[in-house]
Design brief:
This protein is α/β, with parallel strands linked by helices. It has two domains: about 5-95, no CATH class; about 105-365, Rossmann fold, CATH 3.40.50. It is built from twelve helices and seven strands. The protein is elongated and about 70 Å long.
């Protein structure tokens, strides 16, 4: 049963936003009248207009983007009144503090289960992102993540695509589907990866080495490459802060503390791969992140990465032997506990958002102090 009071509030909010966008020149009078005419009386507001900021419709994001290209419009970052215009727009639209106007399409790889990827997808939803694409190998757990997102954010549009990110064909088709469905890609967090056991290099087979690097480095590179290509094709959108420049897109890659420091027979989380191969794959992700950050800075795209420590996920706490194996690594960190997936997810959200607009090519360590000790 419709909540008439809530619908009335939604209609009034949308009307106020429409009036401001019309008065600002972002929406023409015919557009204003056309959209307004589709807002019925309480009891039947079309879902695409209940939240005009986040539903992925052409309005207002595409209108703002189009206006930003007009040198005579204050939406253009070079216009002398751009700061004042953007401030008023942000105030009127009520965007979440971390997002710019209309920039609400996110992608997360490795999003199945209850690990970092799933926590990151949930964090985007909580922050007001209403277009979220998720992928992983496990279709059932991926749909569990989708259900969890919709449980807390019923108006979200969630695109689910199970697949292998080590496959170029899958990655290209997935990113194409995201752009087709959402119209753009603002944020990408590449979480998919596998871990190794405590074998040394001399105990490692070539198959093991290839397996872990195919996912951790090749898969991350394939994803990042496709994401960059998609972002380069779209117009930048205004930041949440009028004093900052617009952003075309932001990518966050998940590396590891072991991509920065070495440790003998470093225990990790899955059989059939090695600490040396794992550490090398994550160091490669860090180096790739820095190189891409340099190459795409002038395109208004930021690329950063996170180096988590031991995080409490199903891979690390699946049995007592695994917990015991990881205990030394946990004790090295001054905080002497495992991190939580949500703690890494919050950092990913910050790096992706325009709040981190001056953070570029950074490897953010989230490990309870492991690296410094």
């Amino acid at each position: 049963m419709a909540d008439n009071a809530g619908i009335n509030r939604a209609v009034n909010t949308i009307r106020t936003e429409l009036e401001y966008l019309r008065d600002s020149g972002v929406v023409s009078e015919p557009q204003f009248n056309s959209i307004l005419s589709q807002l019925p009386q309480p009891g039947g507001v079309p879902s695409q207009y209940v939240d005009v900021r986040y539903q992925g419709q052409p309005f207002p994001a595409s209108a703002i983007s189009q206006a930003a290209q007009d040198p005579n419009h204050p939406a253009n970052p070079k216009h002398p009144k751009h700061g004042e215009w953007a401030k008023k727009l942000g105030s009127k639209l009520g965007n979440a503090a971390i997002f710019g106007a209309g920039a609400t399409a996110a992608l997360v790889t490795g999003a199945a289960g209850t690990g970092i990827g799933a926590a990151t997808a949930m964090a985007f939803a909580r922050a007001g992102c209403r277009r979220i694409a998720i992928t992983d190998m496990n279709a059932k757990e991926l749909n569990d993540t989708r259900a969890a997102i919709l449980a807390q954010s019923p108006n979200a549009k969630v695109l689910v695509r199970p697949g292998d990110i080590a496959s170029e064909a899958f990655v290209e088709s997935f990113i194409a589907a995201v752009v087709k469905e959402f119209g753009r890609l603002d944020y990408a967090v590449n979480c998919a990866g596998i871990m190794g056991n405590n074998q040394s290099s001399t105990e490692t087979s070539l198959d093991d080495f290839d397996r872990i690097n195919n996912v951790n480095y090749r898969g991350c590179w394939l994803s990042s490459r496709a994401e960059l290509r998609a972002m380069l094709e779209q117009e930048p959108l205004p930041s949440h802060d009028p004093q900052r420049g617009p952003q075309r897109g932001s990518i966050v890659n998940i590396a590891s503390q072991l991509g920065l420091v070495g440790r003998p027979n470093a225990p990790a989380y899955t059989v059939s791969s090695t600490p040396a191969a794992y550490s090398a794959s994550k160091a490669a992700v860090i180096a790739m992140t820095r190189a891409d950050a340099i190459d795409y800075s002038d395109k208004a795209i930021r690329v950063n990465c996170i180096c988590p420590g031991v995080i409490d996920t199903p891979m690390t706490t699946c049995d007592e032997d695994r917990i015991e194996m990881l205990a030394p690594a946990v004790q090295i960190a001054p905080m002497k506990r495992m991190g939580r997936p949500s703690e890494v997810a919050d950092c990913a959200l910050f790096l992706a958002s325009s709040q981190a607009s001056f953070v570029q090519g950074h490897a953010l360590v989230v490990d309870g102090g492991y690296v410094i000790n």
